[in-house]
Amino acid sequence: MTTGSPSYCGHCGRPADAEDHAACAVRLAMEPPRFCTRCARRMKVQVTPRGWTAECVEHGVLTS
Amino acid sequence: MTDILERARTKVLDDGEGLSYDELVEVLQLPDDQIPELLQLAHDVRMKHCGPEVEVEGIISLKTGGCPEDCHFCSQSGQFTSPVRSVWLDIPQLVKAAEETAATGASEFCIVAAVRGPDERLMSQVRDGIKAIQAAVDINVACSLGMLTQQQVDDLREMGVHRYNHNLEAAKSYFPTVVTTHSFEERWETCEMVRESGMELCCGGLVGMGESLEQRAELAAQLAELGPHEVPLNFLNPRPGTPFGDLPIMDSADALRTIAAFRLAMPRTVLRYAGGRELTLGDLGTRDGLLGGINAVIVGNYLTTLGRDADEDLALLTELKMPIKELAKTL
After folding, report:
1. ipTM of the shown complex
2. Which residues, other chains included, contact B116 with Cβ-Cβ below 8 Å and sequence gap of 6+?
3. Inter-chain touch B83–A31, beta carbons under 8 Å
């Protein structure tokens, strides 16, 4: 996956700098991201017993 | 010792009989300062009637999201604005997940699909998946594919499915608040067909969904009446976008009382810690539950959320001197 500074929150998909995402950060310790942090698209997420993958159609696959 | 704990000791621990609905309500109303005594009794019941072994299971979502049903706790319903997208797992990934699960020492691997019930495509995928797993991994395969017809029950048994999961989810009196697209009776019917087929029945539910203490006791009593081999106990993890997304996380003392009550309702069942335990009870909750009536765990991640690190759970079992139930003993 292409890296870069996150523009969006991976948990809620809203702009990263527009509000406080502390609660989202706590959630992201217990679940995979659902939104691409570069474009806010909903990702295809597959959770497995010991990991996860999250795929953005534009920015590729993120792996745990 | 209070009256209900004395009666439970005689009835459940000594005689091996589960508590009644009224008695379970009393258990769930015990004050916080009696929780340690309650958990100790539930632990004693588990050790006497089930033994020290712990059954370990891994689960995998074969088909995620896009479910037509409206179970209000579930992020996989297509009726809500949940961020979970529809995804299918392919067979090589399924086999890899089974291998990872078996490597933890687990004896059970459960294939789950978010559907009302399986169609031909899903049954075909499950058939191929089970064949591939059986060729590669020494592990019992369980399935959770929603409501079944008798033909599908027979087909799954023929495929070698060891255990079938279909939860009641909630007490009969609370069910219409949780699900409106199918009935409690439809769920019960599938459970009965599975049990009568010779497959092991895995049937549990969720607590912390806004139900009353009485309805929690009712769920335990209804599960005891159904008599499943295994009861997975889930605690609501409020999911964004679902109707229950804004409910508070269940009180940890209530969660511990519930674990003990379920054990006292069903002294011989496999009582499994399932989803939500990390959020509701934190790291210490795993230990408290295993010393309070639980004798099975899901290791690693859940279907759409992450669980405790499998290695941490396995290390805890070693520390507590609770051996993992071996595959041969589950057959």
Report:
1. 0.88
2. B67, B68, B69, B146, B147, B181, B182
3. no
